[in-house]
Amino acid sequence: MDNLFIQDSAKQLILSAALKFLYENPSDQLSLASIARTAKTSKPRVAYHFKNVNEVFIELSMAWAKSGKFFTDQYLGKHLGSSPHEIIILIGDATFEWQKNNPKIAHITPLLIHLSKVNGEIRVIMDQAMVKGVGRIEDLLKKEGKFPKKEMSTRAFSLHNTIIGSFLASQILTEKGRAEQRKRLNKSLILQLKV
Prior knowledge:
Blueprint: H1 9-24, H2 32-39, H3 43-49, H4 53-77, H5 84-101, H6 103-107, H7 109-115, H8 120-144, H9 152-170, H10 175-192
């Protein structure tokens, strides 16, 4: 089940319904009424928490960022003692595990990326998540100490984009296809981490 990290149970219900709807329908069909139907509640109850669909998307983008970070932290916590090199590869693995364990929220990633181009609030949330991801990888590269300092940011950005690109490409694949994509990602990361 997708953890949305929402304290308010009514909001949790509404956002879970929005995710369920988006998982099963095109995003342009999302409305407060469709969320209410999916949540089996009234439209006024949905409107009490969210004035419009834009507010729903903003809240979902915050939940998306929290979910990804929380899951990655949990996943990496199981691999304490790994080298920085191994942790970077594990970040890629964590992304695929997050997708498998949180399919509905992972499913909206391409939509949120698209919305970030037209919605400043979502752009800020998405950019912060991406900057934190790149920063985490850059810190690991610094700990490893294999690369020239002037290359760190560019290399971290490239590694992060490889992980995100591989994850996005896997969205349209079967479970078997995702496993193959994950293997390709690991090989690509290993090659990029060679000096």
